[in-house]
Design goal:
single chain; 138 residues; alpha/beta; 5-stranded parallel β-sheet; 4 helices; 5 strands; 13% strand; globular
Length: 138
């Protein structure tokens, strides 16, 4: 599976996010590139774990000594959460998880639209931009 789209009408909460984070962090899944799960209320603890797993799955492949491998791991596109993410600290939790996991990702696209983000929360996004180069952030 390369792209995972979870409609807002489906269940995608702490249990599912934690399971996905565990799989990403373990390195078992080397194919998933896109996670689109906007519209789901996700606890900050789960967002932290997901952010950490995204960074760890990216850095483990980027730091490998196997130069013959063309298979790289890590999400390149992420859309997750709902409009409570900003006010409750979810964006901060996601980015803190990325920092804890090594700070670098292969994310090229990140969708933060309709996440309740305010100007005071932009410091977390700016920190992420310093260590990553996104094609799109919306």
């Amino acid at each position: 599976m390369i792209e995972l789209f979870i409609l807002p009408t489906k269940t995608f909460g702490a249990t599912e996010v934690n399971r996905l984070a565990h799989i990403l962090e373990s390195g078992v899944n080397t194919h998933l590139r896109v996670l689109s799960a906007s519209g789901h209320a996700i606890p900050n603890e789960s967002l932290f774990l997901l952010g950490k797993a995204i960074a760890m799955s990216s850095s483990s492949k980027m730091n490998t000594n196997d130069t013959t491998s063309t298979n790289t791991s890590g999400l390149t596109s992420l859309a997750i959460g709902d409009n409570s993410m900003g006010p409750t600290g979810g964006i901060q939790a996601l980015f803190n998880g990325i920092a804890e996991g090594g700070g670098s990702t292969q994310l090229e696209d990140i969708d933060l639209s309709w996440k309740g983000m305010y100007v005071s929360k932009n410091v977390y996004i700016m920190n992420l931009f310093v260590i990553n180069s996104f094609r799109y952030c919306y």
